[in-house]
Amino acid sequence: GRGGTEPTVTDANLLLGRLDPDGELAGGVRLDRDAAERAVAGLAARLGLDPVACAEGIVRVANAEMVRALRVMTVERGVDPRGYALLAFGGAGGLHATAIADELGIGRIVVPRASGVLSALGLAVADRRTDTRRSVMLAGDALTDAAIARAVEAIAGGPPAPGVERRVALDLRYAGQSFELTVPWAGDVREAFHALHEERYGYRDPEAEVELVTIQVSEVEPGPALAPAAAGGARGPARRRAVTIDGRAVEADVWVGELAPGARLAGPAVWQGPEATLLVAPGWSGAVDEAGTVILGRD
Question: Are 97 and 111 in contact (CB under 8 A)?
Answer without folding.
Answer: yes
